[in-house]
Amino acid sequence: MVKICCIGAGYVGGPTMAVIALKCPEIEVAVVDISVPRINAWNSDQLPIFEPGLDEVVKQCRGKNLFFSTDVEKHVSEADIVFVSVNTPTKTCGLGAGKAADLTYWESAARMIADVSKSSKIVVEKSTVPVKTAEAIEKILTHNSKGISFQILSNPEFLAEGTAIINLLNPDRVLIGGRETLKGKEAIQMLEDVYAHWVPKDRIICTNLWSAELSKLAANAFLAQRISSVNAMSALCEATGADITQVSYAVGKDARIGPKFLNASVGFGGSCFQKDILNLVYICECNGLPVVANYWKQVIKLNDYQKTRFVNQVVSSMFNTVADKKITVLGFAFKKDTGDTRESPAIDVCKGLLGDKAQLSIYDPQVSEDQIKRDLSMSKFDWDHPAHLQPPSPIAIEKVRVVRDAYEATKDAHALCILTEWEEFRTLDYKRIYENMQKPAFVFDGRNIVNVKRLRKIGFIVYSIGKPLDAWHHGKPE
Ligand code: NAD
Ligand code: UDX
What we know:
single chain; alpha/beta; Rossmann fold; 2 domains; 6-stranded parallel beta sheet; 14 strands; binds nicotinamide-adenine-dinucleotide; binds uridine-5'-diphosphate-xylopyranose; EC 1.1.1.22; NAD
């Protein structure tokens, strides 16, 4: 029986291994983590992450061929294939701070693998890492191996949160990179055999190590670049009277461009895009390619601009002051169908509004009060470094109320900002909300989910990303 162990029971390790266990009943899969609460949650009815369809998959396999454990060393030493899916955040200090990937967690996992292994293993990079990381890992493993042989593979993960199970069950492709030696090819074949249980052969791409590592960074950069491109156009739409939804539709109809990932928004968030592009920028700089580095840096700059532009729009529309005005924030997660808030645009927007002394009333169907307050009191890039977690600052606590219902959140508010595209925000009773708000009542839709015409008819002053502005925003009376 082949044994798989995955180090890191997070958003990637948990769902990915659960699907492997589901599709390969004859393989034993152990997911291990140093975080005791995380493993306890994986072993309970309240999984540590909210992901549609995940509960069912875990329930089917847990205790049969899927195990969650903190006994990292035992499971690593017994495994034939070790996936490493630990966090690879942005460095916060030292060389490359604010850009380079912090491989501290990865390196400590690699050293531990070398330490506890008594038999040969395939070590799979599942985390997103800088190109050439496999070379460094190989060095750590072989120099500490006591004669045991390791094959390193790169098998980056392309799932998106909120649709992880669908993506894993039916991936566009599975990418496996390895050494072009006989042993390397055997290792690739062994991992290919695992995925071949449910992924059609023509969707399994095998490459060299560096192509696999770089393809992951490239794919995320291309996706984020589409969003920054459409967001750049959204600013021009507002200035000219064009409508970004119509522009996106017309542009996306070109078969060479395609319709997906062209939704204008308050900015992209999530744990991957910014981190991976900064990492790419750093690699370009280190390789003497400043022009290429600057090209990709613009994707991040535009995203920051879009968030700032949104905050400025709120403040300037409301007579240039939001001091002590109640502003409702609907949605705090970085996208719908997840409770994940890592790099959520809501964090920067809320911080911007708090900077202008607003009172915030926040509602998100999946994010806890604790998480929101922690996010609002953390410095940039600290979220992925557990050691830096600090208690919320008194300012954030004082000016922020987190409520469990959209109607309560909007009561007596001057404005509401929609920052996550949760389905329930499309169907709220906006007439009822309007009646309970201060007048003039503003809606700032950062996700283009409300019917602008209908809301204006109710009486709201509406700003929607990339949509023609109303008379109010043109400086004319209604
Ligand atoms: P995560 O923070 O949710 O999970 C990482 C886990 O690794 C944590 O639970 C942490 O406790 C554990 N860990 C860290 N060091 C460890 C060690 N030495 N031993 C055992 N456990 C250890 O992160 P994630 O979102 O699952 O991302 C993991 C990697 O996958 C990152 O490199 C990320 O860029 C990449 N990735 C993420 C996504 C996504 O959607 N979140 C998608 C594709 C790729
Ligand atoms: C992304 C990649 O899609 C995935 O392949 C990779 O493995 C991890 O990073 P994720 O961050 O989970 O996945 O979600 P994604 O759907 O890509 O959304 C990222 C951000 O972009 C969200 O904030 C989302 O709201 C925003 N977005 C997405 C837009 O603003 N407009 C769009 O058209 C699409």
